[in-house]
Amino acid sequence: MRAALFEKRSLEDLRIVEVDEPKINDDEVLIRVVKAGVNPVDYMTVTVLPVNPLPHIPGREFAGIVEKVGKNVKNVVEGDKVAVYTRIFDGTCDMCLDKKEMLCRRGGRIGTDTNGGFAEYVNVKAKNVFKIELDWDIAASLPVSALTSYHALKEAQVKIGDYVAIFGASGNTGMFAVQIAKMMGANVIAISRKYWLKEFGADYIFAYEDAIQKVKDVTNNKMVDVVINSIGNKFFDLSYELLKPGGKLVLFGSLTGSEAKINLSNIYNKHAYIMGTTGGTLKEFYDLIQIAHKLKVRIWKNYKLDEIATAIKNIFSSERDGRIMIIPR
Ligand SMILES: [Zn+2]
After folding, report:
1. pLDDT of residue 178
2. How much distance in Å is there from the Cα of 129 to the middle of ligand 1?
3. What pLDDT is attached to residue 256?
4. 252 alpha carbon to ligand 1 midpoint, in Å?
């Protein structure tokens, strides 16, 4: 099969090669990848994250059709369209028993700790796959983009009538945070310049320059219940400023940088909650599939597998306005 493979830690080394189709064991399925999504984590995977195996096939987010099943597999059959929960988990550690599979003590990430979906085929455990009837762009956006946002909003316990401000609202996770927060009954404030977010459920779209005053106006000076900041330190101070006393600031990305200065007395005087989240649980992935037909995704560009390096590089393009997807064949 054809796959995107790297050995040295650089995008320049990422190339398309002919490799053996993955072998499956009795508990695994072989998936023909129909569509894969490109995320900042794929850039990190190629350049800095510890990976296994090496040479490595990246691709943290994908969906496809079951090509083969191992002899113990009961939940899907050949030909089923499937979405894939792309976390590795053993199901036996304290975190898994607590239904936090993404924190599994012996776990990891498909596409980083195993080969991923930037290939014609990928093998995964049957317990990670769910039969779907969904648009491929949505299906391939569930494992990272949609699930991360869904979990973050659940962890923040967003309620009907809450004000939720979303930084990076037009990004991969942000466009799903906007939609899901709206479904949860929140008043959604996108901190963005992209007016298409109105069609995704944003009630307000404020540029960051005047976000504080605009948020004061719409919340009657109360400020917001929850801030989702997936873009890192550039807007950390601003995201904290938008928070009401007792509000929750949720962090799950650091595209603009990871280090921020924190004034401890500000945090306790505001009774603020600063929370980190990563990915989502297996049950949340299942729940997300049940509402996924109501979700939309904005695609900026589709690339062929041969264009993988350009596709990953363009994650950082200032012209990007929507998702970057890969069509492996
Ligand atoms: Zn575990």
Report:
1. 98
2. 17
3. 84
4. 21
- Provide mean pLDDT across the span 254-281: 94
Tokens found for residue 131: 């039969």
Q: How far is the CA of 87 from the centre of ligand 1 (A)?
A: 10
Query: Mutual orientation of helices 282-291 and 147-155 as an angle, nearest 10°?
Result: 110
The domain limits of the chain are 2-141+297-327, 145-276
Write out the two tokens for 81: 């369209």
- pLDDT (tens digit, 9 = 90+) per residue, 2-49? 999 999 999 999 999 999 999 999 999 999 999 999 999 999 999 999
Report the CATH fold assignment for 2-141+297-327.
Quinone Oxidoreductase; Chain A, domain 1 (3.90.180)
CA of 244 to the centre of ligand 1 (A): 36
3-state secondary structure of 85: coil
Block residue for tokens 């299942």: 286
CB 186 within 8 A of CB 211: no
Q: Cβ(119)–Cβ(2) under 8 Å?
A: yes
CATH number of 145-276: 3.40.50.720
How many C-beta neighbours within 10 Å does residue 99 have? 10
Q: What gap in Å lies between CA 283 and CA 281, rounded to an integer?
A: 5
Question: How many A from CA of 56 to the centre of ligand 1?
Answer: 24
Between the CA of 109 and the centroid of ligand 1 the distance, in Å, is 12
